[in-house]
């Protein structure tokens, strides 16, 4: 039987899993954005594609490198939390 505590605990763990999965991509986007912003401030180049393209390339590379980690984390979360709830265990 699902109680409010079980639902809120599962929601909390799901949100934490989302934070852990998104951390590598968001960190790289922040670091690349700061580096490009510093470069633009130092050189006075204000080209919009200069911020977009390198950040996009860095995000795609990190996403590709961390796909195994993300997949393993999601499968582990679903296997240990969601599937038992669907099957009726708590």
Automatic annotation (TrEMBL):
Protein family (similarity comment): Belongs to the FliQ/MopD/SpaQ family.
A matching Pfam family: Bac_export_3
TM segment ranges: 15-39, 51-70
Protein name: Flagellar biosynthetic protein FliQ
Topology of this chain in the membrane: Multi-pass membrane protein
Cellular location(s): Cell membrane
S-adenosyl-L-methionine in keyword set: no
Organism: Aliisedimentitalea scapharcae
Record lineage: Bacteria, Pseudomonadati, Pseudomonadota, Alphaproteobacteria, Rhodobacterales
Keyword rRNA-binding attributed: no
Entry keyword set: Cell membrane, Cell projection, Cilium, Flagellum, Membrane, Transmembrane, Transmembrane helix
């Amino acid at each position: 039987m699902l109680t409010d505590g079980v639902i809120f605990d599962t929601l909390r763990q799901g949100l934490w899993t989302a934070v852990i999965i998104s951390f590598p991509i968001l960190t790289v986007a922040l670091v690349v954005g700061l580096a490009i912003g510093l470069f633009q401030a130092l050189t006075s180049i204000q080209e919009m594609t200069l911020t977009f393209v390198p950040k996009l390339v860095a995000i795609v590379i990190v996403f590709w490198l961390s796909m195994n980690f993300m997949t393993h984390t999601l499968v582990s979360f679903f296997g240990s939390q969601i599937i038992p709830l669907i099957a009726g265990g708590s």
